[in-house]
Amino acid sequence: MTQTAASSSEPDLAHFASIDPRTGEVVGQHRVYGEDEVRATVERAREAAAWWGGLGFAERRRRLRAWRALLARRIDQLASVISAETGKPRDDARLEIVLVIDHLDWAARNAEKVLGRRKVAAGPLMANEAASLEYQPHGVIGVIGPWNYPAFTPMGSIGYALAAGNAVVFKPSELTPGVGEWLAESLSEVVGEHPVLQVVTGFGETGAALCRSGVGKLSFTGSTATAKQVMAVCAQSLTPVLIECGGNDALLVDSDADLDAAADAAIWGGMTNAGQTCIGVERVYVVGSVAAAFTERLAARAKRLRPGGQPGADFGPITMAGQVDTIRRHVCDALDGGGRALVGGPESVRPPYVEPIVLVGVAPDSTALTEETFGPTITVSTVADLDEAVSQVNAGRYGLGAAVFSARRGEEIAAALRCGMVSVNGVISFAAVPSLPFGGVGDSGFGRIHGEDGLREFTRAKAVTRRRFRPPIRLLTFNRAPGAVRLLLRLIRIRHGRG
Ligand code: NDP
User: Fold this and answer.
1) Contact 186, 157 (CB under 8 A)
2) Is 38 exposed, middle or buried (0-12, 13-18, 19+ CB in 10 A)?
3) DSSP state of 125
């Protein structure tokens, strides 16, 4: 969605407005960064990266922990900006920032242990060498983020990239530029010497310019369609990419599951943030013997939810106006294909709000089941057992997260699902565990943010060997002794040739 600030007859192409989707009110004006400005920003970031990388882990840890303390003191201020640009309830915004703080703290505290130089065994062939490994920063990381969790999602890259010693240039969504600017300004209060986090605001073309700018790595979070464009541009300069895309997450309910807990999880996982969550529950597969009891509980909970802009609303508006059509289309497609609306229906779509919709008996090829709807809708499909549910889930093109409710088979089913993350007897919990990697497979993308893997994403491995003494059998030389290879082969056969 593109909205400009221009009120005169001459459109102002250099600026755009961010808008409160609840009221249509303009809440901020932002620059549209062009190609040259993005390049200049990345150049400044290079200098910042050299300085920041040279500070070392301990000093970066100190600065980043000071930032996280500042964020903790200003939760309400940042929550106001998030609420104003996305429309989400203030408490949801606060919860998002709590996760930001916890992840930032983990990344700062663990970067040295995960990435710092360490000795590794050289092995018997190279016993005369000392081998070491370290993970060095790329320099400048470009981060392109979405609007649905405008602080938590990009900070999964920004916080970890900074902890690893990189500088960051961040292109926030055009819907949430103020959140990006707030983050950069707050960091500059504790890291004043160089701009280690800069923000380039604008539309898709600004993001494309960042892909062309020569950053060391590009971390993209957004839709699968845009990810393909980002990869195509980055391919031109062999810029490595980390891709976090959408999902179509499923929640599986076994015959021995706690049905109240499963219904609570499905409703929160599906409807929180108005369903605009990449790891939100979009579809439920429930075993036939408990389908009626589960669905009754789910419907009762869905009917109680009230979206709106008022304090105490359960969830806010559809932030991106264009998404309303997708939600309506998926609901109509489900009903046209023989599905039934247990709660709500097409009439629940009342922009900018969408009331809860629960659909049952939806055809497997309906877009409500195969695509990401990104609204407060849940489909419920009945299966004979969880193995059937696993085959249906694994046949989809996305593979981000999933949830399983089962007393006996939770971990077995978690292992069998084709996706990056699973909660057993819970929902979305993995995103709040900083030591766990976050990311998907298939159309949900590749690479990981968060955890040790998330720190390593923003580095490159550097392998070093140092000769300690002259080897008894010299192999890596033209001056090799005549019997050296024969002797080596004999030793190798003794060591590896049996069994
Ligand atoms: P988009 O793909 O529309 O946009 C994502 C970002 O890419 C925005 O900053 C956008 O800028 C920018 N962009 C647009 N076109 C280009 C281009 N050609 N080159 C470079 N950058 C470009 O996604 P949304 O913002 O609508 O976000 C929602 C999507 O994000 C959903 O699919 C959701 O599932 C996914 N998501 C995935 C997460 C994960 O971790 N896996 C987490 C959160 C969301 P602009 O806004 O200015 O167009």
Assistant:
1) no
2) buried
3) G
| Atom 21, ligand 1: residue with shortest CA distance | 207
User: DSSP of 254-289, one letter per residue?
Assistant: -TTS-HHHHHHHHHHHHHGGGG--TT-EEEEEEEHH
**Three-class DSSP category at 447:** coil
For residue range 303-323, list pLDDT tens digits in order.
Answer: 999 999 998 999 999 999 999
pLDDT digits (tens, 9 = 90+) for 245-280: 999 999 999 999 999 999 999 999 999 999 999 999
Cα separations in angstroms, 374 against 125, 158, 273, 371? 55, 24, 10, 9
Contact between residue 302 and residue 272 where contact means Cβ atoms under 8 Å apart: no
The amino acid at 463:
A
Q: How do 353-354 and 349-350 pair as beta strands?
A: antiparallel
Q: Which residues make Cβ contacts (< 8 Å) with residue 226, sequence separation at least 6?
A: 204, 207, 220
pLDDT at site 11: 67
Report how far residue 403's alpha carbon sits from residue 286's, in angstroms, rounded to the nearest whole number. Answer: 12
Q: Which of 181, 244, 355, 457 is catalytic?
A: 244
Crossing angle (nearest 10°) for helices 288-304 and 259-271 = 50
Decide: 246 in ligand 1 pocket, CB within 6 A. yes
Q: How far apart are CA 69 and CA 186, in angstroms?
A: 11
Q: What angle do CA 84, 279, 94 make, to 5 degrees?
A: 35
123 Cα–ligand 1 center, Å: 46
Q: Which atom of ligand 1 is nearest to the CA of 278?
A: 34
Residue 12 pLDDT: 73
* Residues with pLDDT less than 50, the chain: 1-8
Nearest-angstrom CA–CA distance, 483 and 111: 47
**Is 388 an active-site residue?**
no
**Tokens 């920032």, located at residue:** 97
Comparing C-alpha atoms, which of 115, 117, 215 is closest to residue 464? 117
CA of 245 to the centre of ligand 1 (A): 8
The verdict on the CB of residue 38 being under 6 Å from ligand 1 is no
Q: How far is the CA of 462 from the centre of ligand 1 (A)?
A: 32
- In order of start, what are the domains of the chain with their CATH numbers? 15-244+451-460 (3.40.605.10), 249-426 (3.40.309.10)
